[in-house]
Amino acid sequence: SPSQGYYTRRGGVGESGDFITSPEISQVFGELIGIWYISEWMAMGKPSTFQLVELGPGRGTLTEDILRVFKQLASVLSKCDVSVHLVEVSPKLSEIQAVMLTGGKVHPSPEDESAYMKGISKTGIPIFWYRDIQDVPPGYSFYLAHEFFDALPIHKFQRTEKGWREVLVDIDPEVPDQLRFVLSPSGTPATQNFIQPEETRDHVEVCPEAGVIVQRLASRIEKDGGAALVADYGHDGTKTDTFRGFRNHKLHDVLSAPGTADLTADVDFSYLRKMAQGKTATLGPIKQREFLKNMGIDLRLQVLLQNSSDTATREQLLHSYDMLMNPEKMGDCFNFFALLPHHRLAHPDKKDKPESKSPLPPVAGFNELLLK
Ligand code: SAH
Predict the structure, then answer these.
(1) How far is the CA of 152 from the centre of ligand 1 (A)?
(2) Does domain 6-154+207-345 have CATH number 3.40.718.10?
(3) Residue numbers of the chain with a pLDDT score lower than 70
(4) Would the CA dihedral through 302, 303, 306, 311 be positive or negative?
(5) How far is the CA of 279 from the centre of ligand 1 (A)?
């Protein structure tokens, strides 16, 4: 909701907020994602320009860590024209992002421009803010959505003896100011449109907005080139009832005090894959601990440990590594998923195309990183 929604009113990402995310836990997370983009940019023949487009950047920490990598690898990127495009609905979070990334040096754009704010990053890269992915100008782009899709609204459905019914929110007639879940008495337009005919589960959550956004990303990648990296907790079309709320890092009843708690549902990657079908190839979902291991997190940890002499920093590094990688913590429940142009994954068959050059390197993260 533009006026009463959680992200427009509160949006408490981070230690002092309602939930903590991987980029807020360790800078290594964002650095490895930065390396993923560089490695894809190289694999795709080092195009002369690219846009980094992040959906729901939170506090801006992930972009900050990625831009640090871009700066460290400035000699590699020297001939490339890079710009950053942030899609953010929360006025409060966009202010926090502006301070984090530009030191507060931003100005609002005139009404007729598609971006509502712009500035220059501390590392000298132009940054633009938008409310909708459709406002981002076309062009070769690398997209990023970390803990974005789980924040979008879902429909819930229950299989009954009489067929699929939608789970709706109602005002409890018995208790004042109390909401309750009810089942629709008959089918609804959503039960007719969003349940796949081959569905085998009894309870299903569908996020049509995520489907529409993935279709848009896939069309843009098909037309202008680039890639998208999606990371979130989720499943591959197997889980059922995952809708839950968080407030002050504790589980919170989703129906109580609406607009004051983070509401979230696991991302159904099988649905996202279906939405990209035909336009782009997809990779994953792969578990976060496998993705980060493939990206070289162990080596990065060793280097940071060697370079830090005080015990507190070393303990912090080990603790954050454990949070990201431990299967009981974030290692197993978070997944990585990518959209890539079909030709990126096509393995040229020498017999069919004798003129084809050496095959493209495997996509990092989903395979071991091979940086020359
Ligand atoms: N990626 C960050 C933040 C995740 S929280 C991290 O991992 O730390 C979700 C983010 O998506 C917030 O920045 C929130 O304001 C933004 N958001 C939520 N709904 C949105 C929408 N419909 N359009 C654009 N941004 C949205």
Answers:
(1) 9
(2) no
(3) 10-11, 347-357, 371-372
(4) negative
(5) 25
Measure the CA angle with vertex 306, ends 303 and 307; round to 5°: 85
Residue whose Cα lies nearest atom 21 of ligand 1: it is 89
Distance CA 44, CA 72 (A): 21
Q: What distances in angstroms separate CA 154 from CA 117, 207, 326, one per listed residue?
A: 29, 4, 29
What is the model's pLDDT at position 357?
64
Range list for CATH 3.40.50.12710 in the chain: 6-154+207-345
What CA–CA distance (Å, rounded) separates 263 from 254?
A: 7
Residue nearest (by alpha carbon) to ligand 1 atom 23: 89
The 10s digit of each residue's pLDDT in 71-96 is 999 999 999 999 999 999 999 999 99
Pocket test for ligand 1, best of 90, 117, 134, 324 (most atoms within 8 A of CB): 90
> Residue 107, exposed/middle/buried by CB under 10 A (0-12, 13-18, 19+)?
exposed
Pocket of ligand 1 (CB under 6 A): 7, 11, 13, 21, 23-24, 56-58, 62, 87-90, 93, 146-148, 151
- Per-residue model confidence (pLDDT) at position 355: 56
- What per-residue confidence (pLDDT) applies to 17? 85
**Cα 144 to ligand 1 centre (Å):** 11
pLDDT at 211: 98
Helix axis angle for 27-43 and 61-72, nearest 10°, is: 50
Given this model, what pLDDT does residue 353 score? 55
